[in-house]
Structures are given as structure tokens and as C-alpha cells.
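[Discussion] Sanity-checking designs against the backbone

I'm trying to build intuition for which residues belong where. Below is a C-alpha cell string of 292 positions. I'd appreciate it if someone posts a full sequence so I can compare it with mine line by line.
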């Protein structure tokens, strides 16, 4: 595989942040644009658009539950509805988060299916299990089409090269895309080498990766991860950022973390795990201070 790592964008972005300058080269005061939770963004070359900020539903989650599900159904539904009211159209789900049923209820009440992007994930690796998951997910969400389906949490355990070991499962997802069951497929990476392979894979339409300025809960040095995400973006893949605030570890550096992610120029949208409506308001207020 050709080397894809560079330091160019990371160093450039870091320098601009330190200097307090605008991010995009050649930007002028007349070309700068304000951003918000609802700013619409294209997801690579998938043909899908979504809000800049997505609502993550997997804070401290696994085995079908999360911090938000543990708060109870009324609390979960309140945050979902408030997110919709604020213009968020990207919702990050997963089988392991236990969030499908909540979004199904939202779709039957206040959420407009035609206006939202639902991204979900499967931990299955066998072809038949993947096929069964896709059918189950559609029933759990009561939707005919899944916008984005990712293989969840790719690591070294998925083989020395997951593109080879998971090829049969990937084929099932490709067939589902061809049939219109899903619109885009890809990976959620929790390993640096898995990310490298994702950047080099034509099969990957969308990658979900951990990125923040301090390297908190990330899969490698910040500059190396940035280089991989640049390569993904340059090849037309949709790039979704997660752990933008380091799963709360950067709670005192929220604006800096948002500025960093947006300043890279290679992240299409980012998922943030909101646990209450006040957290949504806080992110909205900080985004109002940022221009692109």
C-alpha cells in the first residue's frame, strides 16, 4: 500500500489555530461564513447531505445500552426532539447503543424521515449475520432504507488486513447497497492500521474516526490520524468525526476542539454525544463564534 501519511495539513492547521488566523487559505472577511448545528454538509461523494453536527447516541455504551438509555426513555426522547427542533439532521446510532427503538418512536412522531440521515453500525462479521442485521435494523427503525451502515469498531482482531478477512461480509453490504437497502457503507475504526486500510479501500464510502486536538481516546498521534482523514477526504469518502471533545475529556476546551475539527477541512460532519438539551445549546453557542 502506498504511504498516505503526511504532516502538511496538521502542521498548517495547528499553526493557523495558534496564530488565531482564519483556516482556509485565501479566505477574506467577505468569504467567511457562519456555521451552526444545522449547517448542511455533503457526505463525501455518497450523494447524502446531513447537518454539520450529529447527535451521537453512544456515550459510554455497549451491549445495547448507553448513558442516555440509562437516563430513561423520557429523557432520551426529550433530547432527540430538541435536537430535531434545533435543525440537527444527522443521528449516529448502533446496534450496541440500543438506540434504534427510540429513533423509531421519533420517526413516528416528530422526526421527518425524509430530512434526516440515520447512520448505524453492526458488530457482526459473518455474511449471514450481516444480512440478518440489515433486515433487523430496518424493522427496528421502521424504515425501508438505511442511509449509512458501518462495520463497528474495526481493530487488529479483525485480521492482519480486514479488507481480506471481511471480504465476504463486505460483499453482502455491497449487494444491499446495489438493491437500495442501504445508501452507503463503511467502517468505524478503533485502530490505526484499520484506518490506514480504510483510506486505501475503494469499498469504504464513509469512515467514522476519532479526532480531537489533544489525542484523547484516539487511535494514533493527531498528525498521523489527520493525514489519513485527509487521504479519505481527497478520495471522495465521507468523513465523520467522533470523540471531538474526547468523550468529555476536553470539556474545558470545547470551542478549541470544534475549531480544530472544522479547521482541518477534511471532516464532513461530526457526532457529539448529547445527554441533555443544555449540552446542545452549549455547542450551538460555541459554533456561533466560529466562521468558515
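Best answer:
Here's mine. Compare freely.
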Amino acid at each position: 500500500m502506498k504511504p498516505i501519511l503526511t504532516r502538511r495539513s496538521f502542521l498548517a492547521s495547528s499553526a493557523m489555530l495558534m496564530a488565531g488566523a482564519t483556516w482556509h487559505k485565501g479566505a477574506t472577511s467577505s468569504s467567511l461564513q457562519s456555521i451552526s448545528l444545522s449547517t448542511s454538509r455533503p457526505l463525501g461523494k455518497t450523494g447524502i447531505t446531513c447537518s454539520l453536527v450529529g447527535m451521537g447516541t453512544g456515550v459510554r455504551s455497549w451491549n445495547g445500552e448507553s448513558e442516555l438509555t440509562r437516563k430513561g426513555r423520557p429523557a432520551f426522547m426529550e433530547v432527540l426532539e430538541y435536537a430535531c427542533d434545533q435543525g440537527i439532521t444527522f443521528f449516529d446510532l448502533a446496534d450496541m447503543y440500543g438506540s434504534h427503538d427510540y429513533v423509531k418512536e421519533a420517526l413516528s412522531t416528530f422526526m421527518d424521515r425524509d430530512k434526516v440521515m440515520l447512520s448505524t453500525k453492526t458488530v457482526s462479521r459473518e455474511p449471514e449475520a450481516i444480512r440478518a442485521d440489515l433486515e433487523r435494523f430496518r424493522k427496528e427503525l421502521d424504515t425501508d432504507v438505511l442511509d449509512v451502515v458501518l462495520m463497528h469498531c474495526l481493530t487488529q482482531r479483525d485480521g492482519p488486513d480486514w479488507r481480506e478477512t471481511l471480504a465476504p461480509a463486505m460483499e453482502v453490504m455491497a449487494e444491499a447497497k446495489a438493491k437500495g437497502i442501504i445508501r452507503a457503507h463503511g467502517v468505524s475504526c478503533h485502530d490505526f492500521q484499520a484506518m490506514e486500510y480504510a483510506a486505501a479501500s475503494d469499498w469504504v464510502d464513509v469512515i467514522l474516526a476519532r479526532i480531537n486536538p489533544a489525542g484523547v481516546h484516539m487511535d494514533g498521534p493527531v498528525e498521523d490520524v489527520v493525514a489519513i482523514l485527509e487521504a479519505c477526504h481527497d478520495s471522495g469518502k465521507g468523513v465523520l468525526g467522533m470523540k471531538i471533545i474526547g468523550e468529555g475529556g476536553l470539556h474545558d476546551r470545547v470551542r478549541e476542539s470544534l475549531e480544530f475539527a472544522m479547521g482541518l477541512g477534511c471532516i464532513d460532519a461530526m457526532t457529539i454525544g448529547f445527554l441533555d438539551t443544555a449540552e446542545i445549546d452549549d455547542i450551538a453557542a460555541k459554533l456561533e463564534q466560529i466562521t468558515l
